[in-house]
Amino acid sequence: MVATIFFRQFDLIVVFLFTYFKRK
């Protein structure tokens, strides 16, 4: 399903942003 793929991508982006801001 497209929704599942989008959700997985969103989760990855969230983790990436979280780590990015944490490093700052």
Secondary structure elements and their pairing?
Elements: H1 2-23
Transmembrane segments: 6-21
Keywords: Membrane, Transmembrane, Transmembrane helix
Structural commentary:
With 24 residues, the protein is mainly α. The protein has one helix spanning 2-23. The mean pLDDT is 88. Keywords: Membrane, Transmembrane, Transmembrane helix. The chain crosses the membrane at residues 6-21.
What descriptive keywords fit this protein?
24 residues; mainly alpha; 1 helix; rod-shaped; membrane; transmembrane helix
Write a brief caption for the model:
Keywords: Membrane, Transmembrane, Transmembrane helix. This protein is 92% helix and 0% strand. It has 24 residues and is mainly α.
Query: What would the principal axes of the Cα set say about the shape?
Result: rod-shaped
What is the H-and-E element order? Answer: H
Question: How many beta-strand runs?
Answer: 0
Structural class: mainly alpha
- Portion of residues in beta strands equals under 5%
Pick out the low-confidence regions: none
The Rg value, from CA coordinates, equals 11 Å
- Estimate percent helicity: over 70%
What distance lies between the first and last C-alpha atoms, to the nearest angstrom? 35 Å
